User: Fold these one by one.
Assistant:
Number 1:
Amino acid sequence: MSAKTLTENEVLQKIERAFRRQGIGAAKALKLSIGDDAALLRQHAKHEEILTCDWSLEGTHFLRDQHPADSVGWKCLARAVSDIAAMGGQPTCFLLSLALPASHTGRWFEEFLGGLVRASRTLRCPLAGGDTTKRNEILINIMVAGSVPAGRAVLRSGAKPGDLIFVSGVLGEAEYELHKLRASKAQIAPKSIELRRHLYPEPRLALGQWLAEKQIANAMMDLSDGLSSDLPRLCAASGVGARIMAAKIPIHGNTRALVKRRNERLQLALHGGDDYELLFTISPAKAKRLASKFRGLPLTCIGEITGSRNILLIDETGRETRLAAAGWDPFRGASQKR
Amino acid sequence: MSAKTLTENEVLQKIERAFRRQGIGAAKALKLSIGDDAALLRQHAKHEEILTCDWSLEGTHFLRDQHPADSVGWKCLARAVSDIAAMGGQPTCFLLSLALPASHTGRWFEEFLGGLVRASRTLRCPLAGGDTTKRNEILINIMVAGSVPAGRAVLRSGAKPGDLIFVSGVLGEAEYELHKLRASKAQIAPKSIELRRHLYPEPRLALGQWLAEKQIANAMMDLSDGLSSDLPRLCAASGVGARIMAAKIPIHGNTRALVKRRNERLQLALHGGDDYELLFTISPAKAKRLASKFRGLPLTCIGEITGSRNILLIDETGRETRLAAAGWDPFRGASQKR
C-alpha cells in the first residue's frame, strides 16, 4: 500500500497504462476510448446494442480484507458481462467507475487492474472510459455495452407453458466457496484454485450466443442471485409458472463430496448466488435435439414451464412445495438462507 | 421518510412507476428497457454512439441533509448528459445505478425520482435500466448513451495553434451558489431560484450539436471541474497551450453584484466547478462569423490556442502568469481554492 496520494490524473494514467496494450483495434467498433469527455463507437449496422451495469461494492459484493484485489478486478467485469451473455450477445466495451481510498491507489490498485485487464482480454471487452473519485470505501460500477444480431436477443419474457427449463453448468458451488471464505477470515491468495468459482466466475458468452443465434432458447437470463430468486423473475416477465425437480438440479462433485447433508447441498444450489450460469427455456421439440453438453459445459433440464403462476419444487419423494425466494436481495437485509 | 424497508423488487417497481409515462416510444432507438437482464437499443445506422458515466456520491457530489433530493435527481443525470453535449451529440437513454439506505426508500426516494424524471423528460433521455442495492450511504452512478452523426463528434484533441478559445454562458456562478449553500447549513428548498445554477445545471445540448453538425468547433469539452483544471486537459489532449485574458472571462451579473472583490469573482470563474458550460476552440476565420449569442446564450472569446505547452493567464494590467489548476480534483483531497 502506498502512503503517497495520487491525483485524479495519476489514477487515470495508471488505468491507461494498464490497458494500453489492448489497442483500440481490440474492438473495431471502438473509435475513441479513455481521455475525452466520453467514448465513441460505431455499432454494427445489422446489430442491436445491449447496455447493462452492475455495482461491485466493498462490504456488499466483496470484502476489502479478504477478497484478493485481482479477483475483485476480474469479477466486477465478469459479473456485468454475464448480463450480455444472458441476452445472447457479445461484449463491445466497458466503462469503469471507480472510487478508491487514497491508501488503495498503490499495490491494491495495481492488483485490481491486473485482474480487470485479464478479464477484459479474456472476455474481449476493452475499456472505453469511466469516472474516478476518492472515497473512504472501494466502490465500483461497471457498464458494459454489447451487441447482438437484430431480433436475436433472448429476453426473460419469451417462456411458454410446456417449455423445458435448462441450466448450464452446476449450481451452488460459488455460494459454498463464499461460506468457506467467510469462515476462514484470512486474506485469500489471488488465483486460489479452491475458490475459483466464487473468485473468478466465467460468463457463458459462447453458450448464450449459440442459443440466441440458432434461435434455440425462448427465454433466458443469468443466475446471479440464486435459482429461487431468478426463476420467479423469468416466470413473472413471461407471465408463466414453473415446476422444477429437486433431484435434477446439477450439483458439483466437489460440493457433493464436501457437503455431507443432501438437503444442505440442495439449499446451496437453489438459493446460492454468484453462479453466473444461464437459465433458459426451450420448446420440447427443440429440447429433444439438444446435446447434454455444449463445448464441455453440462446442460441440464431441471423442469418445465407451466400455465399457472406458481413456482413449484418437486422433492425426491414426489412431494410438491412452493419454492420461496431465498436468494440475494440487498434490500431485505441479511440473506435469509439457512 | 419511511420506516418500512422495501425489497429490491419494490424499489425497482417504484422506479418503473415513476418512469412509466415516458413510454418506450420516447426514444425510438430503445427496444427494451428496465425489467430484463439488460437494455436493448437500435442505433441510427449513420451515427456513432457516445458512452459516458458519472458518479454522484453523497458527501462528495452532494450533501444528504442540505441538497434537496429533487435536485440530486436532476443533477446526476444533467451532469452525465453534459458529456454528451461536449461531444456534440444527443442523448439516447441512460442507466441508473443506485445504492440507498433503507431509511431513504420513502419520501427522499420519491423526490429524487421526481427530479430525475423531469431531467429525463427535459433532456429527452429515457431510462433504459440499471442496478439497485442497499447501502448506508446514497451512491449514484449514471451512464448515458448518446448519438452523433458519424465523423461529426468534436473531441478534446482537435485544437490548433491560432484557434480562438470560447466559452458559453457565464462562469463561477454555480461555485458561488455552493459557497452560499455550505454557509447556510440549512436544508435547501427544492427548486430554489437563487441556487438554480448549482442545483439544476442545464447541459448545453443544442449548442454542442450545432457546433458539431456545422463543423464549427475544432475541439470541445464541458466545464465540470473549473476552467483552470479543464482547459489544461483540452490543451494536453491537443498537444497545444493557451493564453487566456482575465478581463474577458464572462461573469454573471449576480456574482458581480454580490461578490465585491474583483479578484474573488475571477477566482470563482477560473476555478469554480459545476458550470457545465462548453469550452471550445474555433479557427479565426470561422470565429469571425460566429454571433455573440446562440439562442440567447452568450458565446465569449476568452483567449487563443498557442503552439507552446503553457497555459497562461493575462491579467487586467497585461501581466502574464501561469494558470495553476485549482479546480476540483477528488484525489487531491480538499479543494485548493482560496
Number 2:
Amino acid sequence: MLNKINITAWFKGLQTDICDQLAKADGSGKSFRSDLWERPGGGGGLSRTFDGDIIEKGGVGFSEVHGQLSEGAQKNLGVSHGEFFATGVSIVLHPRNPFVPIIHMNVRYFELGDGTWWFGGGIDLTPHYIVDADAAKFHKVLKAVCDRHDIGDYNHFKKWADDYFYIKHRSETRGVGGIFFDRLKGDKTSTFEFVKDVGSAFAPIYIDLMERCHDKGYDESHLQWQALRRSRYVEFNLVWDRGTQFGLQTNGRTESILMSMPPMARWVYNYQPTEGSAEEITLSKLKKEIDWVRMG
Amino acid sequence: MLNKINITAWFKGLQTDICDQLAKADGSGKSFRSDLWERPGGGGGLSRTFDGDIIEKGGVGFSEVHGQLSEGAQKNLGVSHGEFFATGVSIVLHPRNPFVPIIHMNVRYFELGDGTWWFGGGIDLTPHYIVDADAAKFHKVLKAVCDRHDIGDYNHFKKWADDYFYIKHRSETRGVGGIFFDRLKGDKTSTFEFVKDVGSAFAPIYIDLMERCHDKGYDESHLQWQALRRSRYVEFNLVWDRGTQFGLQTNGRTESILMSMPPMARWVYNYQPTEGSAEEITLSKLKKEIDWVRMG
C-alpha cells in the first residue's frame, strides 16, 4: 500500500540515483559529498553537494521532516492542523560553462495528521544564453511526461511555472520556465506515478544538455554575463521564492536551503546589453507565455 | 521656516558633498557618475555610482518622491493617509581591500498629507575582518554625535541597529552595527539638526577608514573571505531589509534599490573557518549586544 514510508523511500532512492548519474556524466571522477543533518523538531535530511568538471556547484537535497506546524506556518499553508509530515528532493545545478543552463528540480509530498495529503514539484531551466531549439526540446520532454498521465496537465503546469519563476522587480522570468505544480491530489497511486515520472525525467534531460553544451567555447565576456544571470537567480530565490523565504524565516536549515545559490554572482549598476547581442536576445526571451514547444 | 523644501535641499547637498569627498579620498581621479530618474507616480531621484581605486562599487542615492500610498503601503507603514512625501540619502560602499569595511548610511524624512512627519536614518559598519579598535572608534564617533543632541539616544539607537541589521537565518549580525532610528519626531528643527549631524559624520568616518586601511596587504584567501561576507550582505538585504523588500515588492526603482549589492559575492556550502583563524574570530564577534565603545 502506498504511504509516506514508501514515498519517502522512493525519493531517497531518486536522490542517490540522480547523484550517481550526474557524477558519471560530469566525468571528473568525483562523487557527491554527503552531509546528514537532523531537524530539532523532528526528522532530518541528507544534503549532497558537488563540484566537478562540468558542474561548478551542485546541490541535491533530500529531506523527511515531521512535527508540529506553528500557527504562522498553518496560516501560510492555509491549513488548520498542526501535525505534519513532508518529504522531498530538491536540486539546483550551476554549470561552469555559460552555454550550459542552470537547472532546478523539486518533487515533494506533504501530509497532515488528519490524513490530508498532496504532491508538488516541477522542473525549470535557466539558460544563461537561450537557445530556442534546446528550450523547445526541454519543454517537449516535459509535455511528454505530462501527456503520459491523466493528472499531468502540461499547459496548466507550464503557465504555473511562468507565473511562479517570475522576477517581478525585473519584469523578467528566471529562465525559460518548465512545469510547476502544487497541491496535486487525485488517485494517490497515479498521482505518485506522475511525480515519479517527473523525478525520473530530470537526469536524462540535464545529462543531454551537459553532453551537448559543455565543450562550447566561451570567453571572459560570456563569464561576465553568466555572473550577471546568476545574480538574477539569487534575487529570485531570496526575494520571491516562497519555499526559500518560508525556510529562512522559520528556522529551516540555512545551508540546505541555500544550496541553490550560485558559486559566484556579480551585480553591475544598470547593465544594458549591446543592441543585437546574444545577451540582449536572451533578455528579450525572458518573458511569460512563450509557447516553447513550438519554438524548435 | 523648516519644511520639506529645505530638508530636501539639504539632503541633495549632502549627496553632492559626500560624493565629492569620497572621490577625492579615493584618489583615482574619477568622479561619481550621475543617473537622473523619474518616478511614474511622482518625484524621482539622482543615483550616483562609483568604481575607483579604493572603492570597488559605491552607490550614493538621493530621492524625493511623492504621491499616493497604496492601501498595502499604508498598512505596512501603519498610517491611514494616502498622500505622502519622502526624501532621503542612502549610501553603500564596497571597497576592494578586504581590510576596509563595507559601510551603509541612510538619512530620510517622511511626511503625510495630514502634516504628520518623521525622520529616520543611521550608519552601520560591516568589516570583513573585525578590528576591535576600529569598531570602538566608529561607535565612539556615533555616540558623540548622539550626545550632542537631546534627541540622540546612543544606547537606544545602537540596540536598534543590532536588532535591525541581524541575519536571523545565520544567527549573526551583518557587521558591528552602529546606530539606527526611525519615526523620530520632536522639535522639528532640533530633530533635523541631529539628522544633519549624522549625515555629516558619514564622510569623515569612512575617509578615515579608507586612509588607514586601504594599503594593508592581502592575498587570495582574504579575497575569498570578503566574497563570502559579501554574500551575507546580499542575504541580509534581500531577505531581511524592510526597505529593500518594500521597494522591490512595490515597484520601486530596482537599479537604485540594488545599488547596495556588492560587485561580486560567493556562496560555499557549509563553509567553516579554521579554528583560531582571523575569519573565525570575526564570526565570533558578529553578535548583538557587544559594547563596542568599551572595546577599544
Number 3:
Amino acid sequence: MNEDQIVQMIRKRYGGSGRGLIQGIGDDAAVLRPRGSREYWVITTDMLLEDVDFRRTWLTPAQLGHKALAVNLSDLAAMGAQPRYFTAALALPPGIRPSWIQACYQGMMRLARKHEALLIGGDLSRSPAGIQITITAIGTSAQKPILRSGGRPGDILFVTGVLGRAAAGLALLQRGRTRGNNPAERRALNSHLTPQPRCKAGMWLAGCGLVRGMMDLSDGISMDLARMCEACGTGAEIFGSRLPVFAAARGWQCDPVELALDGGEDFELLFAVSARKADYLEAVYPSRLPPIHRIGRLRRERGVFWRVEVGSAPRRLASGGFDHFRHPRPKRWKAGKFPNGTKLSGA
Amino acid sequence: MNEDQIVQMIRKRYGGSGRGLIQGIGDDAAVLRPRGSREYWVITTDMLLEDVDFRRTWLTPAQLGHKALAVNLSDLAAMGAQPRYFTAALALPPGIRPSWIQACYQGMMRLARKHEALLIGGDLSRSPAGIQITITAIGTSAQKPILRSGGRPGDILFVTGVLGRAAAGLALLQRGRTRGNNPAERRALNSHLTPQPRCKAGMWLAGCGLVRGMMDLSDGISMDLARMCEACGTGAEIFGSRLPVFAAARGWQCDPVELALDGGEDFELLFAVSARKADYLEAVYPSRLPPIHRIGRLRRERGVFWRVEVGSAPRRLASGGFDHFRHPRPKRWKAGKFPNGTKLSGA
C-alpha cells in the first residue's frame, strides 16, 4: 500500500463523523464547529523527522523550528483559516543542548508571531535516534473553510507563487551547498528551509467567495493535483507554458518544469475557480499578496493530463511527487516521468 | 536542565496568553474558549516513542494504539473534560506491515469509542528508527476545567485507584514476563500496557463542584505531587499508611510503597478538596467509579513530606519519578530514595 491507500483505509474504517465534525480525515485539515460558536475550527497535525524530512547539517535549529510550524500553518492556509493556537511535541536525542532547544523555539515563535498563533502546549521527550517535531495547529474561520473537494469540471486551476523553487533549494543542499552564492540560490534555499505559509492569501481567497476548492502543495503538483481530482471526482489538465517555474534552476543542471511538477514542499496554494469568475478573481486579487497564476482546469474525464499550450496534444501525467511509503530512501526530490518512459522536457 | 526546567523556560519565554486562551503551557492540557461558545475546549499532546516509552516486544500493536490514546485521554480526565476528537501522527520504520497499522488503529479506536472520541486526522511518515506515535486530543467541558494550581494549604489530597500497579507490571516486563501467570500479574501488566484513563471519574469530580485542583499521575506521585505543589505555591504531606499500594508486588521482590511513590504511568487522578468538604465528597462519590483514597494534605510550608501515620515524624520526600532529561537510559521504573540515602521501607 502507498501513503494515500493507507490514509484511505484509515479514513474508511476509523474516520469519525457527526458530533460537530464538518470534515474529518482526507483534507488538509479537519473542520469542527464548537457548540454555540459562530466560528469554524480547523485542526491539522504534521511531523518533521530527522533524515526523512530534513538533515541536521542542512539547517539551523531556528530554521527547523520555523519549518515545523510552517508546514502546519500551510494546511490552515489551504482551508482559509486564521492561525490561532498550536502545540509542539519535540523528541530530542542525547547531546542536544538547552541553547539548541531555545533557538528552535525562537525560530518557531518568530513565524508564530507573524501569523498571530499562540503556543499553548506540547510534549518533550528524549529520542533514541534523531530529532522529531510534531506540531498540531488550530485555526478559525468565520466562513465555512474551503475543502479540496469543492472543484467542478470546467473550473480554472490557479496556484500562488512559484513552483519547484523549494525542490531547487533541496537540489543545492544535496550537492552540499548550504549557503547560496547569489540571490537566486538564496531564494531557492530559503524556499526549502524557511517556507512562508500562504495564510494571508488563503484567508483572502476563502473570504472572497469565488474559490470552490483549495489545497496546499506539499508533495509536488503532479501528486497533489491528482489528490484534488480524486476528492472532486474529476480529472484535470495543466498547461506547461503557464506553470510559474523557477527558471534559475536551469543553470544548475535541473529541469525547472520537472521541479515544478514533482518537487515537493513548495507550500503554495492550488485552488479551483468557476470559469465564469476567473477573470474577476484575477482583477480583484490584491497585489500585496503572492502572485497567482492560471495553470489549467478541471475536466470531467479522469486522469491528470499535460499540454504544452492550450490546444496542443494532451499527454497523461504520472504522479511523480513524494510518497512516504513508496520510496525506500530518505525524502528527496525525484524526477517525474511520463508513463512511456520519456522524460518530461521543459516547455 | 531537567524536563521541568526546560518546560518552565519554554513557558516563560514563548507561552501564549490572551485571545481566548484560559490556560496555556504548564497544566495537563491547555484550555481555550471558542468565541461565542458556552463550552471550554481542552487540548493536550503526548507522544510515545519506541525504546523510550515502550519496547515493541512487550506489547501488541493494538495495545500500543490503546496506550498512545490513553495517555492523552488521561490528561483530559485530569481537567474534567469529555473527550471529543483526536489526531494521530504515526512514524513507522521500514518493515511495518499494513496489518500492523490496522491492528494499532483498532486498539486505539476501541478505547476511543468507549470514551466517545472521534478520530479527525493525523499524519503518516516513514521513520528512520523506531515507532513513534504522537496524539493530540481535544475535549470539552461545560464548566471551567479544574487546574492543578487550584489547591490551597489545608486541602485534603485524594487519589483514584491503586498506585504503583503499572510500575509493578513494568517490573514484570523487564524480567521477560510478558504474560501474567495469575490474576495479580495480569492486572499489573494490564495497568502498564493498557491503562484505563479516568475520564468518567474526572468529569464527575469536575462537575461536583467540590474539587479545587486536579492532575493525572504519569511520572510517579513523588514527582507529580511536587509539581502540583509548585503550581499551588504550597507544600504537601502524604501518609504512608493511607497510600493505596499494590500489595501483590511484595511477592515479586518489589516494594509496593516505592512503586506507589516513584513508579510512573499509573494514570490515576490526584486531586485536592477543601478540608471542610472532604467527608461530604467521600459520602456522595459514586460507587460505580474507581475508588478514591485520602492520601495526605497540602500545607503552607514548602516541600513534600512523608509520614507513616498522621502524627508520626515527617521526612522529606525526594522526587524519584521519571524525568526524560535526567535519566540517560531508556525509561524505566527507578527506585525512590530519601535524600539521606536510606531506601524507603514499606509502611
Number 4:
Amino acid sequence: METIIAIDAMGGDIAPYSPVKASRLAGDFQDLKIILVGDEKKISFLMSGEEKSYTTVLHCDKHISMKDGISRKLLREKENTMRKVLSLVGEKKSDCALSAGNTAAFVSIAISELGLLQNVARPAIAVLLPNVSGSFSIFLDVGANILTKPEHFVQYGLMGSLYAEKVFGIVHPKVGLLNVGTESTKGGELRRQAFNLLSASQKINFIGNIEGQDLFTGKVHVVVSDGFTGNVVLKVSEGILKTFKTDLKREFSRNILGKIGSFILKGHFKRFTGRVDYAEYGGGLLLGVNGVVIISHGKSSPRAILSAIKLGKKIIENNFLQTLQKELNKI
Amino acid sequence: METIIAIDAMGGDIAPYSPVKASRLAGDFQDLKIILVGDEKKISFLMSGEEKSYTTVLHCDKHISMKDGISRKLLREKENTMRKVLSLVGEKKSDCALSAGNTAAFVSIAISELGLLQNVARPAIAVLLPNVSGSFSIFLDVGANILTKPEHFVQYGLMGSLYAEKVFGIVHPKVGLLNVGTESTKGGELRRQAFNLLSASQKINFIGNIEGQDLFTGKVHVVVSDGFTGNVVLKVSEGILKTFKTDLKREFSRNILGKIGSFILKGHFKRFTGRVDYAEYGGGLLLGVNGVVIISHGKSSPRAILSAIKLGKKIIENNFLQTLQKELNKI
C-alpha cells in the first residue's frame, strides 16, 4: 500500500531545511511518496537528487509565519502552504498533511478545509509522551481547544483509546483524567462532570483521575486534559528537560574530572536523551478532523520531521481514520 | 529577635520522624524556638536531648491524615495538630505554623483560624522553583484556590512581588502570567481579563504572558497562575525530575563503564541534584492569610522540613507579614 504525505516545506523555524532534509532521509521507507509544498526555488536548491524518485515539489508562493495571529483574513486566504497540504488531503491526492508551522493556524485551517468527524465537537492534539518504562503515553489535548467542556473530555478519551489500540496495538488501553487529586470530586465542576461522563462511558477503560507526577510513569496509556492545561504541561515538560540537560552538561564541564566522566558516559547519555527527546516521537496528531493531520514542533529538526513522516505512515497503514470514523458513528 | 515556629509533628508521610529530626538539625540556627505539636510519647521517643534547649513538645491526640477528605465535620474539629499550630499563631504564641500534612485541610483550617488579609479574596500557595541560572522563581498559586477569578491573579501578582522583594531582596521583580502564548488575547476570557488587570496595576512590574518553557529559565521573578494549572504543573515538574534522575541512574549502572563514569561524576551529580531538589527550597508559603503559614511537601525529609524552618525564619526576620498587610491596606 502506497502512502502519500504532503509536507508544508515552509513550516517551522528550520524550514525549508528540515522538511527537505527529512524527505531525503525518508528514502529508507518503503512505498512512500512525498509532496513538498512551498517555494520551489528554495526547495530545489536544498534537494540532493536522491529523493527525486519519490518526492514531488508543488510550488506555493505564500506561507503563514509563526508570528501571524489568527485573523479572519488569514483564514480566508486561499493560497498558502498550509491550506495546500490540507486541501490535497481533502481532495484525496494525499493521505496525510504535515506542518511544523504555526499550530493555531494549522488547526483552524484543518477544521475549515477537512471538517470534523461525526460526533466530534472539538478536535484535539494528541502527543506521545515518553515515560520511565521506556514506553510512552498518549496525551491530549495539548492546545487545539482552550475552552473545553465536559463532553469534550469523553470524545478525547474515546479518540485517544482508539489511537492507542489501532495504531500502537495497546489492548484495552487505560485512560486517566489529568487532575489535582485522585478523588472524583476534585478539580472544580468541569472535571467533576468530565469524571462522571468518562466513568459512564462503556467504550472507555477509565481508571480515574491521575495527578501530574503520574504523567511520566506510564500509569495509564491515555491521559485526557483540557487544552489549556495540556499545552502548559507540554511546554513545561519540554522546558524542564532542556534546562536539565543544559545544566547537567555545564556541571560536567566544570573541571577535568567532570570532562573525563562525561566522556566515558557519552554513549549512556545519548541513549538516555534519545528516550526523552521529543524529536523521536513525531509530533502531534490532530484527532477529530476528517483526515490525517500531523503537527510537528516548531523547532523540528530533520530527524523530528522524519519521525513525523514515520508516524503518519504508521497511522495510514493501520487504516486508523476509517476505524475512528466507524467508531464515532456508533456513539 | 527570637523566632518561634510551631510544627505539626504528625504531618507528612515521614512524620513524626522528619519534623523531630529537623528540629534537632535546627540547632545551628540562632534565636530559634520550636514547638512540636503531636503525640508526646512518639515525639519524645525520637528526641535526642540536644534539641531540648530550644524545643517544646505540646501534646495533641488527634491529627488529620493525608487521605482525609475535607468535610465540614473535619473543619469543625477543635483538637488536631494542624489547628493547634495555627491557633498558636493566631494567639501570637508562635510566629509561624508549619505542616507537611494534608494541604487542602491545612489551607482550609488556616483560613478559618487566622482569617484573610484585607483586600485578599483567596489565598495562594507560593513555591520557589529552581531555575537554570542557579536562582529561583516564585510560582503561585499551586493549588490553594481552584476556582480562580481575574482579580485573584492581580492579588497573586502583588503578593508574589512583595514576597520576592521583601524576603529575597529582588528589586522591582518581574511578573509573568502563565499562559499558552505571549499575545495578550491568549488563554480564554479568564486570562484575557487577568492580563488586562495585571497590565493596569501600578504596583506590579507585569511583563506579560509567559509560556511553560520559560518557567525554569528565570525570565521572570514571579509567575502567576490559576491554582489548577499551577498544581498540575508543579506535580508534573516533580514527576519529570524524579523520572529523569531514576532513568539516568539506571542508564549509568548498565555496565562497568557507566559505573566508573558515574563514580567519577558523583560530586557533580550531587551539586546538580541539589539545585533541582525541592527539599532545598522549603515548601510553599500560604500568602493571603493573617499569619505566616508554611506548607511542606507530603514526602518531606528532615532536610526538607529544615529548609522550611529556615524559610519561615527568614520571612519573620524580614517582617514580611507586616509589610504585606500594610501594602494590601493601601489598595
